Amino acid sequence: MTTLHISMDKESLRRIKNLVEFEQILQKRLRTAMELSLDELDTQAAKNMEAGFKNPTGDLRWSLTPKVHSPFEAELFTESPYAWRREEGFSGMTDSLGRYYAHDPGIHYMAEAIDFGKDTVQEIFQLEVDLALFDIGVA
Q: pTM here?
């Protein structure tokens, strides 16, 4: 009968333990990436509003609310009744008070924030994944 004896040094055992905990560590880092990304998009959307609105009051800007649902899903939302109107425009339409808007184009403040911020968001996520790997001693 052959007997096999395996021994591992403390560092190897620590790394194995860290691999077991990697999912939890990664999810924490991804949640951080979501929060930082929402901050980036919120800041850019605010800049777009300030640059594109004729008479900005700040009401729409301060109504933007970030919400992280999970490490894999988040949203930057508003309950402002005119948010979509400012995003997409209201040309050729009549509002609930009967006012007709012949020329009221949208400024796409959110779509442009996403387009402008996508590289930064990608960098944020890459950094957090790298940090998760560093946390477990791989990187």
A: 0.82
Query: Residue for token digits 């930057």?
Result: 76
Buried b (16+ CB within 10 A) or exposed e, 125-138: beebeebbbebbee
12 SS3 class: helix
- The token pair at 48 is 């777009």
Report how far residue 113's alpha carbon sits from residue 42's, in angstroms, rounded to the nearest whole number: 8
- Residue spans per domain, the chain: 21-53+60-135
- Cα(69)–Cα(124) distance, rounded to whole angstroms? 18
Closest residue by Cα to residue 45 from 124, 122, 104, 115: 115
User: Residue 57: how many CB atoms within 10 A of its CB?
Assistant: 9
Helix (H, G, I), strand (E, B) or coil at 56: coil
- The pLDDT-based confidence of 127 (bands split at 50, 70, 90) is very high
Here the tokens at position 134 are 């560093």
Give the confidence band of 11 by pLDDT, cuts at 50, 70, 90: confident
Could you give the CA distance from residue 68 to residue 49 in angstroms, rounded to a whole number? 23
